[in-house]
Design goal:
By secondary structure, the protein is mostly beta strands. The protein has 2 helices and 22 strands. Strand 15 and strand 16 (208-209) form a beta hairpin.
Length: 285
């Protein structure tokens, strides 16, 4: 064996071992998802998002010289226009919208990401991955028969700017404001107001908590994630160890009701892990 081959083997062996260990870890997790508290950070927002509701950015946009709008180009992105139609209980439901063919990973902080599934010609809010379907981008209208009941704007699959709801007489019933998926009503608290280091984000719509909740360590790493529906905690809430942004390791999972206002349901700790990601407790329910 040549000297070059020996050196090549020397460098490749650790790589092969690492891949083998990773493959074994993934297979173990598939069998027992609680076996390790280590989380694939690609699917978890590990650090706080960029500054929310940046007033300076909005002022800059308004100062820019207005350009003549080009057909089906929204926020500088070329889009395609289409609609869906379905019949239900004697009524016809329409959705008119634009979508982009650009493949983009939506923000992991936003719960509802709207995308067009061309296979069954429907708009969905979950299950999107880049390359599967197309993100809604631009104006949106929903009609029942011929009456407009909802209108708004999308930005890469997230609700953006002003959204309005109407009754069957086309009378405005409600108006909400978003910024790339964030409700403008969201309550944001900071560790440091000057540096705008976020402590927690409480999503609020129509005066009730609605959407994904996030709490952060002062190191900007995520500390707690969970979901609200109609002001109630639902689903699995997860706490994480503070690893100073080196990795994401679960600390504790608490199971809440799957749907709001579920009677006779008591939240319980589902599982706990130590700082190294080793399972130390699992509820056998």
């Amino acid at each position: 064996m040549s000297k070059f081959s020996i050196l090549l083997l020397f460098f490749l062996l650790p790589v092969k071992i690492a891949f083998a260990q990773q493959d074994l870890l993934e297979k173990t997790r598939a069998i027992d998802p609680d076996s390790s508290g280590l989380v694939n950070s690609n699917f978890l927002p590990t650090t706080m998002p960029l500054l929310l509701f940046d007033d300076d950015k909005e002022k800059t946009k308004k100062k820019e010289k207005k350009k003549k709008a080009k057909k089906n180009i929204w926020f500088g992105v070329k889009t395609q226009k289409t609609f869906t139609k379905r019949e239900l209980r004697g009524q016809t439901y329409y959705e008119f919208f634009n979508y982009t063919i650009e493949s983009r990973q939506p923000s992991p902080y936003i719960r509802d990401v709207y995308w067009y599934d061309s296979k069954d010609r429907s708009v969905k809010t979950s299950g999107y991955t880049p390359g599967v379907g197309n993100l809604l981008h631009g104006p949106y209208e929903r009609k029942v028969n011929e009456e407009l009941v909802e209108s708004g704007m999308f930005y890469y699959g997230t609700k953006h700017k002003t959204w309005m709801l109407f009754d069957d007489q086309n009378i405005l019933q409600d108006k909400t404001h978003f910024e790339e998926g964030w409700p403008k009503e969201a309550k944001v608290s900071y560790f440091d107001q000057s540096s705008r280091t976020i402590e927690q984000i409480i999503p609020v719509q129509y005066g009730l908590e609605e959407g994904n909740f996030f709490h952060f360590y002062d190191s900007k790493q995520v500390a707690v994630t969970g979901e609200y529906k109609f002001g109630e905690k639902v689903g699995l809430w997860t706490e994480y160890w503070d690893t100073k942004n080196t990795k994401a390791i679960r600390k504790r999972e608490i199971q809440y009701q799957e749907e709001p206002y579920t009677s006779n349901f008591r939240p319980f700790i589902r599982a706990e892990w130590d700082k190294d990601g080793n399972l130390v407790y699992r509820n056998q329910k």
